[in-house]
Design brief:
Number of strands: 0
Largest sheet: none
Mean pLDDT: 93
Number of helices: 8
Distance between the termini: 16 Å
Order of helices and strands: HHHHHHHH
Low-confidence stretches: none
Strand content: under 5%
Shape: elongated
């Protein structure tokens, strides 16, 4: 397995965890209503320590998440309900060198890139600007770089094809 494939798989594992724990909060919270601890304190999922991390993050880096405005909510819904299953499928496909994952990876790359552009725009120019743009960028920056990694890896038509010299060397 190539190093870049290992990086993608590890990234997908982390993204999956964030999707089902953190992004889930915005996805299931009411639209256009501020998310408050009082409203989420009795939730069974995600665990309370995750909610505390979420509120800390919103207070220190991304207050826009607490507003859960329409576009942000629907972008957040993508993460636990569409992207999370895709991460598992992607891990399977990369590990087993399935060529059919190429086109879905390219589409996912573009969706993720433009999805995060919206949040960066809000952090810089929105009503609820980031309190700490450096921390915000450290937290979300990889989500802007990662789509470029995927496009680099999956742009060629024969993604998992090995050259003849590689096959001869491995035999």
């Amino acid at each position: 397995m190539r190093t870049i494939d290992k990086i993608i798989i590890v990234s997908f594992i982390f993204f999956f965890i964030f999707a089902i724990f953190i992004d889930y909060i915005n996805a299931v919270s009411p639209e256009n209503k501020r998310i408050r601890y009082e409203d989420t304190s009795k939730w069974i999922w995600p665990p309370q320590f995750v909610l505390k991390v979420f509120y800390w993050w919103c207070e220190h880096a991304d207050p826009f998440l607490l507003e859960n405005e329409t576009v942000a909510k629907y972008l957040a819904v993508l993460s636990p309900f569409l992207f999370a299953p895709f991460y598992l499928i992607g891990i399977y496909a990369i590990y087993n060198k399935k060529q059919w994952i190429r086109f879905p990876m390219i589409i996912y790359s573009f969706v993720l890139f433009f999805d995060l552009n919206y949040f960066f725009y809000q952090a810089i120019y929105g009503i609820e600007k980031s309190n700490n743009l450096l921390l915000f960028t450290l937290g979300y920056g990889y989500y802007q770089i990662f789509p470029l990694i995927l496009i680099y890896r999956f742009w060629s038509k024969n993604v998992f094809k090995t050259s003849i010299s590689t096959r001869i060397k491995n035999n």
